[in-house]
Structures are given as C-alpha cells and as structure tokens.
DNA sequence: TCCGCTTCCACATTTGAACCGT
DNA sequence: AACGGTTCAAATGTGGAAGCGG
C-alpha cells in the first residue's frame, strides 16, 4: 500500500486539496474559470455541489503529478496497492475483486462500449478504511486515458497504432449513496458495477464517454463532505488501481477476454459451454432452421447445469463462483432489511432505482435543488441530471489526449467552484478538454 | 473496385425487479 | 405481511451487415 504522503510529499500533512475558498488567492485565471460557468445558470444555483465540505486550510494551485502508469497491458504484474492522490490522512482503499481484475489484466482487459452504454465488467468494487465514521463523504468514479495512443489488436496482442483521438469531456460517476457517513462506506464494499461506458459523444444519459481502441484507467475519488451543499472543501483522496486498466472496444478483439467475460459474468451465462446460447446450441438452431421445423430436442440437455451432460462447462471457474461480484446474492438478501449501502454487497444498490444509471431523462437537468439528505445515508431515490461543462473562451490549454491528470486538478487549479451537484448515482461532467 | 478494420444491430438467453394473487 | 408465480426490462456475447478509409 502506498501512502499518499509518500507519493505526494509535496502535499505535506496540513494541506487539503480543494477549490479556492472565498477570498483565497488562486492562480487560476479568472477568464479560464469563467469558461467553466454555465451561461444559463444563476450563480447561486451552482452552490449545490460539494456543499458543506469543510474548509481547506491550504488550497493548492497546481496538482502534483501521479506516478507513471504501468506499461503495456499484461506486461508487468500490478503493484498490490492503488496509487493515490490524497489529502485524507489514514484513508486507504483496496480493490475487493482484485484477483478477477488481475486475471483480466493478465490477458489485456477489454471493455465494450456502445451507443446505449455498456456496463463495465469486472466492475470496480472497493473497500475503504480509515474514514471518520461520523463525517460524510462522496464516492466518485471517472475514467481517464492512460496515454496518447490509439491501439490496435494485432492478432496476439495490443499495439499502439497512431495518435489518440482528441480527448472527450470528462464525466464523473457519483456513487448513489453519496453523500454518506464514513461508517456507512466502511460497512461493506462499495461497488461501481452500474457505471456505463459509451462511445456516443452526444450521449444524453450521462454515461462515461470513451473512444474505442484507446487505453483507459478508472479512478476512484473520495471527497469529504460535511453536508450535501456547501462552498467549502474538506479534502479529497484519489485512487487508481493499475490492474483495472483496460482498452475500450466496440467488439471484443481478444478471444481470451471473451472467454473470461463469459465465464465470469452471470449475464453471459447463456454463452457458456452448458448454456443454450453456446456455440453448439446456436449452430444446432441454425441447422434446424435450414432443415425446417422439427421436434426440438434441446431440452434433452436439461437445464444445462446438470453435470456430465453433453455441454459440460469447462469455464465455470472456482474464482467466479466464490467472487461475490459474479454470484449475485440470494434474493432474500435484497429483500431483507439492509444498511443503505447494502448489507449484502451490491444488493443494496438495488434499493436505489435508476440511481446507478445516471439521471433519468425525464428529470430536469442541472437540478439546483437537490434534496437535502438526512443523515440516514439513504439518498433520494432518483438522481438529478449529469452536467456537462464545456471549455470556455479561454481554452482549457489541455492537449488532445493529454496524459491523465489527477481528478483533483480541476479543483486544484482553482475552479470552477462550486461545481453543480447532479445528485448521487448521476454523472458529473468536469471536462475541460476540447472535444474536437 | 477491393480489402481490411471498425461499428452497428438483431438475436437468444439469463437475471432480477416489479407486479399480482393467495 | 409473507410467499410464490408471472411478466418485463435490462444485461450478455454472437454473427453478419454496413460504413469507412486506404
């Protein structure tokens, strides 16, 4: 485990990362800050994100660089701990399903992206320790490009193939339990399994927008927030797990990844060797179609789960069955009274309909009046909309496909703040990168 | 025009939430 | 209120067609 103070000694111990406080000096050019603002929003409406966050004693003007990302996929064993940028002393995160991620990473993880949005699998499943049980925090996730290259599958491995596409607006997924107390977050693992990835630059749902055939790195951000709404800032911790690096694709390139996904993802059960959608079954269906209707005999295979049958699974691994991510908890678990974050892992997230999917389309965007959540840790059942920040007239100054910058850079660079708070489970655009 | 790469879409199947009746 | 069955939306990878550029 890397301690943040070791990674970022420049932060010191008394410095919190945060937006410029009222009256505080900031090196952020006012003109540039202006570029982040919504022309159609009244300033007071912006006061709804990260409100009540405790004042940072020492806002920083420039972000410290993250350590270099790992080299090519699968070429080097991932370090056992996340890299972190962090002003929350003592807080540490660990990747719950790290073994599964490592398995994918050893092959070269690929994530499907579609216009409608596709979930990540494996999902980031995090356990956190060291939080103040009484304080409240937000959990965020974003995905940043690893390098400035576009990749191509060369039959056996991924290789850089030219320059990356211009970087898209950054969007941040806000965990629907946010904000919740430290005790709440530490009670059980925090799952981001409902995060969706899309390649649609005009995506209206707020999914995280990625380019196909590019390498990305998910990051987890923890923000201390005393209340839901405030103009103050209480510290941030950003983590990334090198083994979660992936290449976005619109169709799987590496058949080994396909096999792993089918074997590990319960929704792909039908494609396993004993599934009715396995290749053998599909071929048989095609033949039956060509020959015309005839008595269907597929039931002879039974449920497909019977051991020793003609389609015995050879992929259903031990890891998968023991991994809570692949094995949904019994339905009773979801029905039983559970703590807000889900006494039984991800099941609790099912208590927050639509929240993980970002903002429902019928909800107004840029909701300025997100309901104050009582300290029950239970967020409102619906999220507000995501927000999209366009580059301002001053220009962002970011090169296309720039190397990943710390999430906190948005704040560290002095603005814009406060960000509009789109509500838990929604996505927040903090992008300042030119789209084209 | 051809070819290769990439994207898109319909499809069958599985899962789980919602609904309804008992 | 609890339970069980049914329905339906959402999720999965597949495979072929379409689009695009060299």
From TrEMBL:
- Show the coiled coil region(s): none
**InterPro entries xrefs:** p53-like_TF_DNA-bd_sf (IPR008967), T-box_DNA-bd (IPR046360), T-box_sf (IPR036960), TF_Brachyury (IPR002070), TF_T-box (IPR001699), TF_T-box_CS (IPR018186)
Spans of biased composition, class Basic and acidic residues? 273-284
Molecular function GO labels: DNA-binding transcription factor activity, RNA polymerase II-specific; RNA polymerase II cis-regulatory region sequence-specific DNA binding; RNA polymerase II-specific DNA-binding transcription factor binding; transcription corepressor activity
- Please indicate if the UniProt record lists Nucleus as a keyword: yes
Quote the biased-composition stretches of kind Low complexity, using this chain's numbering.
325-336
Annotated region described as Disordered, given as residue ranges: 273-344
GO terms under cellular component: chromatin; nucleus
Q: Which protein are we looking at?
A: T-box transcription factor TBX6
Q: Where is the T-box domain?
A: 95-273
Give GO BP annotations, semicolon-separated: mesodermal cell fate specification; negative regulation of neuron maturation; negative regulation of neuron projection development; negative regulation of transcription by RNA polymerase II; positive regulation of transcription by RNA polymerase II; signal transduction involved in regulation of gene expression; somite rostral/caudal axis specification
Listed Pfam families: T-box (PF00907)
Give the location in the cell. Nucleus
Question: Keywords, A to Z?
Answer: Developmental protein, DNA-binding, Nucleus, Transcription, Transcription regulation
**Keyword DNA-binding recorded:** yes
């Amino acid at each position: 485990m890397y301690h943040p103070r070791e990674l970022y000694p420049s932060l010191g111990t008394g410095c919190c990362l945060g937006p410029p406080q009222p009256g505080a000096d900031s090196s952020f050019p006012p003109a540039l800050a202006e570029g982040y603002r919504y022309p159609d929003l009244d300033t007071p409406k912006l006061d709804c994100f990260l409100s009540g966050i405790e004042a940072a004693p020492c806002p920083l003007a420039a972000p410290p660089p993250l350590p270099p990302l790992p080299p090519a996929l699968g070429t080097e064993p991932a370090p056992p701990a996340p890299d972190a940028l962090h002003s929350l002393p003592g807080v540490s995160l660990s990747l719950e399903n790290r073994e599964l991620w490592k398995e994918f990473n050893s092959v070269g993880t690929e994530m499907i992206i579609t216009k409608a949005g596709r979930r990540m699998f494996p999902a980031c499943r995090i356990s956190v320790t060291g939080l103040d049980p009484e304080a409240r925090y937000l959990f965020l996730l974003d995905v940043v490009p690893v390098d400035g290259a576009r990749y191509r599958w060369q039959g056996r491995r991924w290789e850089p193939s030219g320059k990356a596409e211009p970087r898209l607006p950054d969007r941040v997924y806000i965990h629907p339990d946010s904000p919740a107390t430290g005790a709440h977050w530490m009670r059980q693992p925090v799952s981001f399994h409902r995060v969706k990835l899309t390649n649609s630059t005009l995506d209206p749902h707020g999914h995280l927008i990625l380019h196909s055939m590019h390498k990305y790195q998910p990051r987890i951000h923890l923000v201390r927030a005393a209340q839901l709404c405030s103009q103050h800032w209480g510290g941030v911790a950003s983590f990334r797990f090198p083994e979660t690096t992936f290449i976005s694709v619109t169709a799987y390139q590496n058949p080994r990844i396909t096999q792993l996904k089918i074997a590990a993802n319960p929704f792909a059960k039908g494609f396993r060797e004993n599934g009715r959608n396995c290749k053998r079954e599909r071929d048989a269906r095609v033949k039956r179609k060509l020959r015309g209707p005839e008595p269907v005999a597929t039931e002879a295979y039974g449920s497909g789960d019977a051991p020793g049958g003609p389609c015995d699974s050879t992929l259903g691994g031990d890891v998968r069955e023991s991994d809570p991510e692949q094995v949904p908890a019994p339905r009773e678990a979801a029905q039983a009274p559970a703590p807000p974050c889900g006494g039984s892992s991800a099941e609790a997230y099912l208590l927050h309909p639509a929240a993980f999917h970002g903002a429902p389309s019928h909800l107004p965007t840029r909701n300025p009046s997100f309901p104050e959540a009582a300290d029950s840790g239970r967020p409102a059942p619906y999220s507000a909309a995501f927000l999209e920040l366009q580059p301002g007239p001053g220009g962002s100054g970011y090169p296309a496909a720039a190397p990943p910058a710390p999430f906190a850079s948005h704040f560290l660079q002095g603005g814009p703040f406060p960000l509009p708070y789109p509500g838990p489970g929604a996505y927040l655009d903090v992008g300042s990168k030119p789209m084209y």
